[in-house]
Design goal:
The protein is an alpha/beta fold and about 350 residues long. It has 2 domains: about 190 residues, Peroxisomal Thiolase, Chain A, domain 1; about 160 residues, Peroxisomal Thiolase, Chain A, domain 1 (3-Layer(aba) Sandwich). It is built from 11 helices and 17 strands. The strands form 3 sheets. Strands 1, 2, 3, 4, 5, 6, 7, 9, 10, 11, 12, 14 and 17 form a 13-stranded mixed beta sheet that branches. Helix 2 crosses helix 3 and helix 7 runs parallel beside helix 8.
């Protein structure tokens, strides 16, 4: 009897995929924040030399993907699938940004929860034996998101305290079916990850996932994404604990994507009402990524928020042994300009990923 199907919404992997490579590429504002030293690349030009914001976001994805592959010590042709998404119409950043890599692509959309969705799908592909290596990747860009969902940048509108700042950045992870053979690199010491270095840092694997459902509490404030997403995050966290039979103490950290300061309080109360106290373990990428002095209202948001915090900071804490087990829960507000302008509310979704050091 397979133990893969756990409870109502979860999967436990018998042969957990290993994260063999990861990369984070961020904009200047993100690099100036408290976690700047953890990111692989900080772009001083938010247009990355492109002619448009959308093209710039695609370039962020391409850089993150190429760097993650290099960190994994494999060639581009060894990657069988990419699972990618972003916030733009028709997944513009992913399709145009990754097109030249010539790798089969699953395009996915989960709003700002996309990194959790892409890791979940890529992990099932690898653990199922359908690929030896797959990439999960996503991105967001402040200017492209403002242009599509809110106001032109030149409008200079006031931002309410509940609003969040879309992160400019892309994060990518390479998921592999087994620990790769450590080989000498011909690219110089900077790009070489030796067996000794990997052993010292430790490996991180995806032990399981909890797939979220669309949750709608009828909130119609498009400037308060935290309130829209918090119930979805609370549902998936509680379901993860139920499905696996865990208590919050099983995890060193329970980390949401971008609930911000408003959504944080709602989430803690929501989960507590279900019988779980997560205050000690809880952390939110949107609250952490920017400093108080950076004037971002409730915090950071966007697909890239949780993605770069995962690849830039969270994985490093696991590799170093600061944490041994994390429940990573990217969160998404399923906001559409069309549905919102037609008077509909903003549903939320979240996806849980269990990351373990071993």
């Amino acid at each position: 009897m397979s133990c893969k199907q756990m409870g109502k919404q979860s999967v436990c992997f018998e042969n957990p995929p290993v994260i063999t490579g990861a990369a984070s590429v961020v904009g200047k504002k993100e690099g100036e924040g408290p976690y700047g030293k953890y990111f692989d690349v900080i772009e001083e030009d938010d247009k990355v030399g492109a002619d448009s914001w959308e093209e710039a976001e695609g370039k962020l994805q391409a850089k993150a993907a190429e760097l993650a592959i290099r960190h994994a010590g494999i060639s581009q042709k060894e990657v069988r699938y990419m699972v990618a998404g972003d916030l733009l119409g028709q997944l513009m950043a992913s399709s145009f940004g990754l097109m030249d890599m010539d790798i089969p692509l699953f395009g996915v959309y989960g709003a700002c929860s996309t990194m959790g969705e892409s890791i979940g799908i890529a992990s099932m592909i690898v653990e199922g034996g359908f690929a030896n290596h797959a990439i999960a990747i996503t991105s967001s860009h402040f200017a492209s998101a403002e242009k599509q969902f809110r106001f032109p940048l030149g409008y200079s509108n006031q931002r309410p305290k509940a609003a969040t700042w879309t992160v400019t950045g892309s994060g990518a992870v390479v998921l592999s079916s087994s620990q790769r053979k450590e080989e000498l690199s011909q690219k110089g010491e900077k790009d070489l990850i030796t067996a000794e270095a990997r052993a010292e840092k430790g490996k991180v694997r995806v032990k399981g996932i909890t797939t979220g459902k669309v949750i709608d509490y009828g909130i119609k404030d498009s400037m308060n994404m935290g309130a829209c997403m918090a119930p979805a995050a609370g549902e998936v966290i509680a379901q993860n604990l139920i499905d696996f039979g865990y208590q919050p103490e099983h995890y060193d950290k329970i980390i949401t994507g971008d609930l911000g300061k408003v959504g944080k309080d709602i989430l803690i109360d929501f989960v507590e009402a279900k019988g779980y106290n997560i205050k000690r373990q809880y952390m939110d990428c949107g609250i952490e990524i920017y400093g108080e002095e950076q004037n971002v209202q409730a915090g950071g948001s966007g697909c890239g928020c949780s993605a770069v915090m995962l690849t830039g900071y969270i994985l490093k804490m696991l590799e170093k042994g600061e944490w041994n087990r994390v429940l990573f829960v990217p969160t998404g507000a399923l906001l559409s300009q069309v549905s919102f302008n037609e008077g509909n509310s903003v549903p939320g979704i979240a996806h849980g990923v269990i990351l373990e050091r071993y």
